[in-house]
Design a protein that fits this description.
Length: 322
């Protein structure tokens, strides 16, 4: 049964958190570095400005990548958020983040896709906690740079075997941000410690970043605000133009590249077996954003703009399931 590995991970995680509570240890902090970027607070969308912290100091790993199927998965021009198997042909994983009402602390986020990869939640300092925004449930942090996070090692999972090495994918997120770490809060992180195999996040309301191991950090000019934001990161590394290989949309609107960077042509997603998948934070903590993460999904095809638009409409209506 698939329950056993999850229970084993939860037991190990619980031991780690118990030792922290007794003062004998703390959360796994990877390289041990602390954030020095400061917090970026919100009083609404910022004025147009710089693209935020351009730090790329987090080390790149030299481990080999997994070699999943790099061919494009077929999928209809349809809303990918309905739960209809015919419409979700390319769906790899989806977490509705709707497990509990406000103030509650369930033990995991359930994946409703096939071969589910449920994410155990590591609570640190009573964070994160479930909340409700506009009638939609989500996992909330009351400050940036906290350590609590849902995460799971990817070794042997569908994330490693099916997403690793692919040249085509789409990551779909719904967030309601209030403040960010100036050292870049993470919305989704696949990596080890402070190292990013693939990471999506923001250091400020006017900048969104995509990090890809072995490539320069990709910066996108953004106009995020404190309402629910639907984010799509569309990967197609077969594109000849470097700026077409990773596209970012917020509420269906494409974001301009602030720098002409991207992965090499035909590069596969560089996932390592030693990495973990984390939502709303980095795998070693320290990079939460203040606000809530309400939904996350991964597809094995690059969404066309029309499908992005359909998904935005569906998720704006409800990100808690069909």
């Amino acid at each position: 049964m698939r329950v056993a590995p999850t229970l084993a991970f939860l037991l190990a995680l619980g031991c780690s958190l118990d030792s922290e509570a007794l003062g004998t240890g703390g959360p796994n902090l990877g390289d041990g570095t602390s954030s020095t970027g400061g917090l970026v607070s919100s009083s609404g969308p910022p004025a147009t400005g710089t693209t935020g912290d351009a730090s790329t100091g987090e080390p790149a790993s030299t481990s080999s990548t997994s070699t999943g199927d790099a061919s494009s998965s077929s999928g209809g021009e349809s809303d990918g958020t309905t739960g209809d198997p015919g419409m979700d042909a390319s769906l790899l994983a989806r977490w509705w983040v709707n497990e509990a009402a406000s103030g509650q602390t369930p033990i995991l986020l359930a994946d409703d896709a096939s071969d589910p990869l449920d994410l155990p939640i590591a609570y640190v300092g009573a964070m994160p906690v479930f909340t409700t925004v506009d009638g939609n449930r989500g996992l909330s942090w009351d400050a940036a740079e906290l350590d609590g996070r849902p995460l799971i090692p990817i070794i042997g999972s569908k994330i490693e075997t099916e997403l690793g090495g692919r040249t085509h994918a789409t990551v779909e997120l719904v967030i309601t941000p209030v403040a960010f770490s100036g050292s870049t809060s993470r919305f989704l992180h696949i990596g080890t410690g402070s190292g990013d195999d693939l990471a999506i996040g923001a250091p400020a309301f006017d900048s969104l970043q995509v990090r890809w191991r072995g490539a320069p950090t990709m910066h996108f000019d953004a106009k995020l605000d404190t309402t629910r934001q639907v984010i799509h990161v569309v990967v197609d590394t077969t594109q000849p133009m470097v700026t077409d290989r990773v596209l970012v949309y917020v509420n269906g609107v494409p974001l301009p590249h602030a720098n002409a960077e991207g992965p090499d042509r035909d590069a596969g997603l560089p996932l390592q077996a030693s990495s973990a998948l984390t939502l709303g934070n980095r795998s070693d903590g320290q990079r939460s954003f203040q606000g809530s993460l309400q939904y996350a999904a991964i597809y094995l095809e690059p969404f066309k703009p029309s499908r992005v638009g359909l998904a935005v409409a569906a998720l704006k209506s409800s990100d808690d399931g069909p």
